[in-house]
Every structure is written in structure tokens, then in C-alpha cells.
Predict the 3D structure of the following.
Amino acid sequence: MGERELVTILCEPTLEEKVLDVLRRAGASGFSTMRSEGDSTRAWSLEVMEGANVRIETVVSEETAAKIVQEISKRFFAHRSLVVWQTTVRVQRPERFH
């Protein structure tokens, strides 16, 4: 077992392909996408927390995670509502996750 980073992005559907492009360019070797619904007590200015959102997850090295978070922050945080979190996870066959 080895440690890697799980990066999770919750965003509006219109950002899905742009976020996936960030993951690919950063060097992620794979990802999962799923539809998600939720609610928030914060005053989000979009339908993300009211209906179908996109949840994107990728398991990557610490270096790749840093690239992903930095690029998403730079490109989207100022003008779009999305949530990004990073968790250290232990994985089998860590060499598969770049």
C-alpha cells in the first residue's frame, strides 16, 4: 500500500469538460464522474446545490494534486462556484496513480 491524494471536485455540469481537461493536462491517469445532489446553507449563486451537480474524483500523486488544485483555483474560483477538497488515501498498487 502507498499514499496518494484523492482530489474531489463538486461543480456545475457546464464545468465538467473544462475540469476534466485540467485533470488530463495535469497528468491524472484516470478519474470518475458521477451525478450528485445536495443542499447548502450558504447562498450559492447557481443551481449546483439545488439539483444535479457533477462530482469528479481522481487519485493522483501529491505533485499532480497540487497542479490540479492550483489550476482549478486559478481558472474557476474567481467567477464560478465549485468546491474542491483533497484527502490523503492509502491505495493498493500506488504506481498506477500518477
